[in-house]
Write a structure and sequence with these properties.
By secondary structure, the chain is an alpha/beta fold. The protein has helices spanning 39-47, 54-70, 77-89, 96-109, 115-153, 181-188, 205-217, 229-234, 260-269, 302-305, 354-362; strands at 2-3, 6-7, 11-15, 18-22, 33-36, 160-164, 193-198, 221-224, 240-243, 247-249, 254-257, 274-277, 283-284, 306-311, 314-319, 332-335, 342-345, 348-350. It has a seven-stranded mixed sheet with strand order 8-7-6-9-12-17-18, with helices on both faces. The protein has a four-stranded mixed sheet with strand order 13-10-11-16, with helices on one face. The longest helix is centred in the middle third of the chain and has 39 residues, at 115-153.
């Protein structure tokens, strides 16, 4: 994707010991590149949401293993590798891509006994995973495009109105995005569309990141408060909902940013199709049912109590609640499969049930 006519992806290797990422905590106010030089840098980047989004978390962790080996001592590199694996795995519990990426390294490094060979293999694994995620998102875009085209046929000169929640754009992946990939491809094809962007409290990834992305790409959008979507659906102002997924269970239940479940309920009540764009790397076949099965991250209460904004050239943090307020901050919720119209994957459209999902991994 492009930022002011310069092509970017969310993460790249600058040199042998430096990985660079876009600091998403600063957007849309400040476009800043951050250097990651160690496993601990990568851990903090994931934990503190310098990077976020399931596919990007996985790729970032993968580069974290590479950096661990770049910095490892020859006499104990296997022990240091094990420590790095455990440290990175603890950074974020809900997104399955992190565990998926680390398992890729574990398998490929198992029979290697030379540190330099291990470094080369880790770098190769990270770069392959990065390219796989990019290609998966491109294909998700192609497979989801047909859904937008079908609605556009009956709209005459009116735009297709799409509602999305949180940020499942290129900032959450490597390029294209998951939920946004069909939107970008439709826009580039000349299909008239408009996106309703949920602000996505408490970290406002919709208002800050999705809105920024769409604006940079020239896609018409409107930011709305999180609780507005139901009203818009009742009034016929939403043609479809597309969200991403941080982890999808074997039965098709979908874990995504908190508030997604409520959008699915509203969509179901108003006969609005509810689509989830999900790469196969985000599907966890080891969890039979997502509801009560997918671990839900609880984050620090300050994310709810305080909010960042831009004031006279500075990013400022202000208090929203009584100073001593007790706060619960659940990061995700789970939407039961019965409310999902289709899963949009790199292998095609898939009904959200175990039988159909299994077929994806055999094709």
């Amino acid at each position: 994707m492009r930022v002011d006519n310069v092509k970017y992806q969310t993460i790249w290797l600058k040199d042998r010991g430096t990985v660079q990422v876009i600091d998403q905590r600063k957007l849309p106010f400040d476009f800043r590149i951050v250097d990651l030089k160690s496993t601990e840098d990568v851990y903090k980047a994931i934990k503190e949401m310098v990077v976020r989004g399931a596919p990007l978390i996985g790729v970032t962790a993968s580069y974290g293993i590479y950096l661990a080996l770049v910095n490892a001592s020859a006499w104990d590199w296997k022990g240091q590798l094990k420590e790095a694996m455990e440290r990175l795995k603890s950074a974020r519990p809900t997104a399955i891509n992190l565990e998926f990426a680390l398992n890729q390294h574990k398998e490929r490094l198992a029979n290697i006994h030379s540190l330099e060979e291990a470094r080369n293999q880790a770098r190769k694994t990270a770069e392959e995973l990065l390219e796989q995620e990019k290609e998966s998102c491109r294909k998700i875009g192609e497979n989801g495009l047909s859904l937008i085209e079908e609605i556009a046929k009956g709209k005459d000169s009116e735009p297709v109105n799409i509602l999305t929640h949180c940020n499942a754009g290129w900032l959450a992946t490597i390029d294209y995005g998951t939920a946004t990939a069909p939107i970008y491809l439709a826009h580039d094809k000349g299909i008239k569309l408009h996106v309703w962007v949920d602000e996505t409290r408490p970290r406002n990834q919709g208002a800050r990141l999705t809105a920024w992305e769409l604006e940079k790409h020239g896609v018409p959008y409107t930011v709305i408060a999180d609780n507005t979507g139901g009203l818009l659906m009742q009034q016929g102002m939403v043609d479809m909902v597309i969200t991403g997924s941080d982890r999808t269970a074997a039965n098709g239940d979908v874990a995504n940013k908190i508030g997604t479940y409520l959008k699915a309920l509203a969509a179901n009540d108003n006969d609005v199709p509810f689509y989830v764009a999900v790469p196969l790397s985000s599907i966890d076949m080891n969890i039979e049912r997502g509801v009560n099965g997918i671990p839900i991250e609880q984050r620090h209460g300050d994310e709810v109590k305080y909010i960042d904004g831009y004031d006279k050239g500075n990013i400022t943090t202000i208090l929203l609640t009584p100073e001593n307020a007790r706060v619960a901050n659940y990061g995700f919720d789970v939407t039961p499969a019965k409310y999902v119209t289709w899963l949009i994957t790199e292998k095609g459209l898939c009904k959200p049930n175990k039988k159909e999902i299994k077929k994806l991994f055999r094709s």
